[in-house]
Specification:
The complex is a heterodimer of chains A (about 525) and B (about 750). Helix content of chain A is about 60%, strand content about 10%. Chain A has three domains: about 55-125; about 135-220; about 280-530, MetI-like fold, CATH 1.10.3720. With about 525 residues, chain A is an alpha+beta fold. Chain A contains 15 helices and 13 strands. In chain A, strands 6, 7, 8, 9, 10 and 11 form a six-stranded antiparallel β-sheet that branches. In chain A, strands 4-3-2-1-5 form a five-stranded antiparallel β-sheet, with no helix packed on it. In chain A, strands 12-13 form a two-stranded antiparallel ribbon. With about 750 residues, chain B is an alpha+beta fold. Among the domains of chain B are: about 70-165, Lipocalin (Beta Barrel), CATH 2.40.128; about 435-685 and about 705-740, MetI-like (MetI-like fold), CATH 1.10.3720.10. Helix content of chain B is about 40%, strand content about 25%. In chain B, a hairpin with a 5-residue loop joins β22 (about 325-330) and β23 (about 335-340). The radius of gyration of chain B is 37 Å and the shape is elongated. The chains are: A alpha+beta (about 525), B alpha+beta (about 750). At the A-B interface, α1, α2, α7, α8 and α9 of A face α1, α3, α4, α5 and α6 of B.
Chain lengths: ~525, ~750
Amino acid sequence: MFNRTPKEMNKYWRVGEPMVWLSGAALSLTLLSAAILLLVIMVSGLGVFWPSPLQQLELKDGSLLVGMQTQVEETADHSGMRRQYKIANRDLNGLDFRWIDEAQIVSSSTPADLLVLERAEYGDFFGRLQTLEGKPASLDQLRQALHQVETARAGLSELDQRLIEISYRGEQLRLKLLKIDYHQVAANEPQRIELSAEKQAEADEFERLVKVQSERLNRIHARTAVFSDANGQQKEIVLADILKVYTPNTMSSADKARFYVAKLWELVSGEPRESNTEGGLFPAIFGTVMLIFVMSLFSFPLGVIAAVYLREYAKEGLLVRIVRIAVNNLAGIPSIVYGIFGLGFFVYGIGHSIDVVFFPERLPTPTFGTGGLLWASLTLALLTVPVVIVSTEEALGAIPREMREGSYALGATKFQTLLRVLLPMASPGIMTGLILAMARAAGEVAPLMITGVVKLAPTLPIDGNFPFLHLDRKFMHLGFHIYDIGFQSPNVEAAKPMVFVTALLLVLIVLLMSSVAIRLRNKMKKRYTFGTF
Amino acid sequence: MKPVYLKKVKRNDRLASWAISIGGLAIIFCVIFILVLIVEVSLPLFMSPTARQIARVESGFVSSNVQVLAVGMDDYLETAYTIDAGGTIRFINLADGRELEQIRLRPAEADKRLLAVENFGRLNHVLHWDDGSLSVEQVKFSPFYDAADNNRRSIRHTLESRGEFPAVPQQVEQSLARVNDEGRQTRVDLFADGRLEVQQREVTENFLGEEEVTESSEILELNGAGQLSALVLNDSGTQLYAGTATGELLHWSLEESGEANLVDHLQAFADQRRITALSMVFGDVSLAVGDERGQVSTWFGVRGDSSGKRTLTRIHQLTGHAAPVDKLSHSLRDKTVLSRSGDGLHLDYMTSERFLLGFNPPGGISRYALTARGDGLVALGENGDLLSWRLFIPHPEISLKTLFGKVWYEGYDQPEYVWQSSAASDDYEPKLSLTPLIFGSLKGTFYAMLFAVPLAIFGAIYTSQFARPKLRGMIKPAIEIMAAVPTVIIGFLAALWLAPLIESSLGSVFLSLVLLPAALMLCILLWQAARKLEPLKQVERGYEFLAVIPIIIGAVALASTLGPGLEQWLFAGDLKQWLFSELGTRYDPRNCIIIAFAMGFAVIPIIFTIAEDSLSNVPNSLKAASLALGASRWQTVWRVILPSASPGIFAGTMIGFGRAVGETMIVLMATGNTAIMDLSIFNGMRPLSANIAVEIPEAPVDGSLYRVLFLSAVILFILTFIVNTVAEIVRQRLRAKYGRF
C-alpha cells in the first residue's frame, strides 16, 4: 500500500474503512473496561479468604518479621522492589501493614509452628504458642481448650437471649408508663401501680441475670494462653477472644479449601466485627433483602397498573404523551433528589404526623419521624417504578393483536381479557421488570443514606417480638456498607479486603439478577417475534 | 347467562378501567408532587420577614419629666424594662402593662442623675452618671416554674453589677466602657476639648497565684483628624473606632494595655460627609457606619497590597434613610444591623444586603432594643408608649445574590463564590453560594461526557451496523449488564483502585492517550496492506472489534513500560511536581480524570442502548438503497443512517447527561468534595448531588442550610426535567416517524 498514489489513498480514506475500525475500537474499549472492572473485583475479592503462607523474614538489622505478603512494587527511587506485608498484631505494633525493601531481607522461611489467631479485638495475631494456662502445650491442646470455651459460651447464649427479652420487655413497660404519664393518670391508679411493680420486677430479674452472667463470663475469661510474636515479645490472650486458630504453613490445599468455604459461610451468616471491617455481612444482606421486598410491594402494583393504562386503556393523545414524559422523568430524576424528597415528605412529613397522632408520649424521641425501613422502601419504590413500567409495557406491546381480538370475539370484557389473557402472557416481561427494579434497588445507595440506612443496626427489622416486622427500624445495606467501610472506616488499609469482598458479593447479586432478567426478556421477545412482523 | 352476572362483569370492567386510569395518571401526579414538595420546602428562603405587634403599653407608667434612656426585653417577650435619667430601672409586664418592680440603681446617692446609657453584649448597660463615673449593670432574666401558681412558667429578673469606673474631673462629652469575661476593664472618654483618653485595668494571676492589677491610662493620638462625631468600642474592649465630622474613620487597637496603637486612619467619604453613628456588627469583625446623608455601610480591614497591612474598606451598602442616621446597633444572633433615623428604624442584613423590616410607628421611636435571640423588638415612642413586636425573620442571610453571586465575606480579600456551611464558632457568616456546586456538577459532567459520548456512539454504530448479528446478540446484553453495575461499586473502585493507579503512573496515562490512536492507525494501514492476501480476506467483516483488542492491550502495555522512562527523561521523574512548578497546577489524587473514567463508565451503557436502538430501527430499505448506489458501508452509515437516527442519538446523549449531572455515589467517593472553582482536569470538585448527600444529615430541619439543600435539589430536578423532557419529545417524534421503537 505504500506505493499507492495519493489519489488512491484519498479514496481509501473516503470509503472510510479506518472509521469502521475506529468504531470497532470504541466498542472494544467499552467492553474491555467493563471486563477490567469485573476482573479487578473478582481477583481482589475472591482471594481475600484464601490463606496465604505466613513468612518469617530475617532483616538486615537482625530483627525478625512474620507476615503475609500483600503487594510488591518498585521503590520510590527506582532502586529495587519493596514488598508490603500484613504483620497483624495491632495491639503490639500499632499498624497492620509494613513495607520492606527487598534489599533489607536476608532470608525468608515458612516455619510450620507459626499460628494465625483470629481475635474478637485488635484484628489477627501472628506468632507462636508459648503456654496454655501456665503450662507448655501443643496446638491440639489449645484447640481442645478453645472448644471447651466455645461450649461454655454456647451455654451462656441462652442467658443472653433471656437478657435481651427482659430488656425488650422493660423497654415496652417504660413506653407504657410514658403513655400513662402523658395521659396524666394519677399516681394511685391500679394500672400505674401494677405497671410500676412489673417494671421493678423486670429490673430485679435483669440485675440478677446480669450478675449470673458476669460471674460465668469471668470464669470463662480467666482461661488464657500466652503467645509470642516474631521477636519473642509475649502476649497473653484470653481464650474467649480467640475466634479461630490455624497454621497456614502446614495446611494442605484441601484444608485451605475447607477453610475458605468456612470463611465464606461466616461472611454470609455472621455478624460484623471491628467497626464492620471483619466478620460477616448477615445484617447487611438481610437489610438489603427486606428493603427489596418491601419496595417491591409498592412499586410492582403501581408499575404494572401504569403500564396497563398506557398500553391498553389510554387513547393515544396528549395525555398519554404527558404520562410518558412523566415516566421518563421519573426514571431520570437523580436518585439523591428522591432521597431528599423521601426525607422531606416521608420522614419529616408523614412520619412526624404519625408520631404526633399515635406516639405523642414518646416525643421528642421520634418513632416514625426518623429514617427507617418503610421510608427507604417507599422512596426506592418511586425510583424503580419506571423500570417496571417500561418492561411491562414492552411485554404487553409484544403480544399480538390477534390475542386481544380473539378474546373480545369470545365476549370477554376488557378487564377479563387483561386478567385472563394479557397479563399471563406478559408475565415473563413483568417479572423482568420486577427483577431489574430489584437489582436497581440492591445497588442504589444515595437515597438510602438519608432515609434510614445506618452503619450498624443493633436489631434486625424482623424479630420474635410483636409485631414481628418493625418497619420503623433502621437497617443495614450492602451498598452503603461498601461506602461506609471503604470511606468512613478509621483503618482504610485494613478494611480494604472487606470492601472488595462486599463489592464482589453485591456485584454478583446484581449481575445475577440482571442477567436472569435479560434472558427472560430476550426469550419472551423471541416467542412473539413471529406475531409482530 | 344470568343478567345479574353480566351486570357484575360490566361493573367490574368499569371499576377496573377507573382504577387503572387513576393508577396511570398517578405517575404524573408523582412527578408533580415531588417537584411541589421540594419547592415548598425551599420557598420560605425567599419569604419576606414579618413583624407582629404583640403589646402596647400606654404612656403614663413613667412620669413625663423623667427621660427614659434605655429599654430592654427578655427572650420570652413578656417582661420589658426601662432605665430612666433618675437612675431607676422599672420592670413592666407587657401583657397587662403592670409595673412589676422598681429598683434604684444607686440607692445611697438619691440626687445623682444619669446622663446616658450605652448597651453592649447581652443586656449589659453602661450607665454614665452626672459626676463622670460609670457603672456597668447587667439585667438577667431566668425562667422558673412557680409551684405556688400551678407550675406556671414565670420569669425572674435580677440585676448584676459587673464593674465600676470612678469619676473623672473634666467635662466629658461621651464615655464608653467595657468589662470582659477575663476581668479586663476598658474605659474610653471623649472630653469636651477633643481629647480622647483610654484607661485600662487588668487583673491577672501571676505564677504564684497572686492577683496582679495593672492599670494604664493614655491620651490617644488623633493624627490630625477632624472633630470626632461617633465612637464605638467592640464588646471585649480591644478595638476602638471613631468617625469624624469630615468623613474620616480611625481605628485603634487597644490589645496591649497602655500601648494603644492607631492602626488605620482614612478619609472614608470623599465628600467629607459627617459620620453620625457607628456600631460593630455581631462577631466584631465588621463596622457599620451611618452618615448624615442617611446611608449605612459596613466596613472591615482588607489586605490591599503585599505588605499584609489591613485597611478599612467599604464592603456592603445597606438600604439608606432619608434623614441622617442617628443610632446604629446590631443583633446578637446574626449579622443584622439596626439603624435609626428621623424616618424610622430599619433592620438590614449585612451579608445579603437585604432590607428586612422597617418600623415607623406614629409616635416615633426614641429608644429601642432587640432581644438576644433576635426575634423580638421593644421600642419606646416619643410619646411614651411602650411597644413590642415579635419578628419572623427566618432566613435573612439568603438572597439570590448570596446564592448565586459573588459575595465579599468577612475576612476575605475580595468578593468570592464560597460554599462553607458551618464553622467552629457561631458568629461566622454562613457562606451558601450554590455557584461553585453547580460549576462542580457541570465540570464533572463535561469531562465524563467527553469520555463517554464518542465511545458510546461509535460503539453503538459498530454494534448496530457492522457487527455480525450473532455477536450483536451478545454485545447488547453485555452492555446492559454493564448498566446494572451499582454506582457505589464504580465509585469505590475509582477512588480506591483507579485513583492510586493513575496517580502513580500519570506519565503512562498520557502516553497511552497518544500511543493508542497511533497504534490503531498503524495497524489499520498494515491490515490494509495485508488483506490483499487471499486467506485474510475472509476474516474481515464483522469481527474488527475483536481484532482490535490485542492492539489496545498492547498499546497500553507499551505505554505503561515506556511511561516511567519518559517521565524520567522529560519531567525529571515527577510529572506531578513538574505540573505544579511549571504550570502552577495542583494535582489532586481524586480529580476529573478519575471522574471522566468512572462517571463515563456509568453513562456509556445508557447512551449506547438508546443510540443503538435508534440506529437499528432505521428502515433497512434506506441502507439497501445507499449500498446499491455504490456507497461504501461507512459512507452509508455516515451519510444515510446517522442523520436518520440522529434524534435518537441526541436523546440518548441528553439522558446520559441527565444521569451524569445527578449521579451521587461516584462523585461523592471520587471527587474529593472540595468546593473549588477551577477548570483544571487535575482538580476535584464538589457537585450539587454529593453536597446534598454530605450535608443533609447535619442540617437542622427547616434551617437555612436545610432549605438551601432542598433548593439545590430543585435545581437538579429542573435541570434533569428539561433534559429528559426534551429527549422524550424527540424520541416520541422519532417513534411516530419510524413506527415502533
